[in-house]
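quick one, two chains, predict together pls
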Amino acid sequence: MSVLKWSAAEVARKVIDNKELFILDVRNTDAFEDWKIDGHKFEYLNIPYFELLDGVEEILPKIPTDKDVLVVCAKEGSSMMVAEMLSDAGRTVAYLEGGMKTWSEYLEPIKVGDLTGGGELYQFVRLGKGCLSYMVISEGEAAIIDAVRFTDVFTNFAKEKNVQIKHIFDTHLHADHISGGRHIAAQTGATYYLPPKDAEEVVFDYTPLVDGNVVQIGASKIDVGALYSPGHTIGSTSFVVDNKYLLTGDILFIDSIGRPDLAGLAEDWVGDLRETLYKRYRELSDDLVVLPAHFMIIDELNEDGTVAKRLGELFAENHGLNIEDDETFRSIVTDNLPPQPNAYQEIRQVNMGKITPAIEEQTEMEIGPNRCAVR
Amino acid sequence: MNSNLQLDAKGLSCPMPIVKTKKAMDTLATGEILEVQVTDKGALADIPAWANAGGHTILDKSEDAGVITFFIQKA
């Protein structure tokens, strides 16, 4: 029959709209088990492409004819080959343009809500990697929090919304993905802020981000206020936006909490993490809507594709916020931690400005899930 | 290490290194050795996985200036 080509954007719509999809993933079993395209109603078959070189007849009975079928591989080439074989066998299937590499990079901007005086808050959902970036917009001005490295997405979005990017924040020095913050700042003339305690080794200029800093966006002066909340890193800082939203960075997620070990000091920072989650956040209003810098599993997405939940609900439901005993907490966040994010040490070096790998290398470094949480 | 056949798959991207490796392997007899050179990073994991699935043995793997060389003994 025929072969269709789907973009990452089309696949993202399937995820967000809770559509059914059958994914034939032709990567290695290890790669598939480590990381795949997650959807609420997706079904999967993983057969490495090199097992299909003699033909696809054997797998035909396993491939449905009554739903969309998407063939996926690392870059694209193998999925095209397998899709063509399936087409020759009489099936109509699609392959993912650019493969998992492109999926890892795709960002979908979704509106989280309205702010005082006509402002808006957008969440940029990087479905493939589980990274979340934010843009606060108000009357011609914008602030960005935790921008990923695809600077064009943010600058184009700002153009589309007719706003000028004034302030760019990173909640901490990221270890799972490469920040686009300072590059957007260089392009736009915006101020780039980093928590100084995370930035001791950085080799570029930045504006220190400290507890109590408040910037105001637009004429209606939407407050973006910094709240020092260490634990994932020693500098980790949260933001309260318009007294409505709490941007938690990698400290608190919807269904998990941040891990304290990615900068190598789990034992030292576990007390800070405990203090932030069990004291500092407890002093805030339960009605704040938590907007984290990551999600880990697809179940953390709301119906509209956003990742957001009331702080009060998280206090009731998030396991990581309900560990009574200090020692149990210490043990959970420091023992038997999951593997670290791919290339996390190199990624930290990039974010400090110490190394500047080629774009292709950056893509390789960011392959795989973010792994910033402990559950 | 000596090989019975050399395959240059440098500059090819996935899936061609494996497609060519398989074709070359099909021409060899059990116990013979194929030497294959690739530059595609994906082949680094895929060639051993492919060899493993077919029961072939990777006798040696080395990397020099971005060129990865495998010696594979046919099952």
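Chain B has one domain: 5-73.
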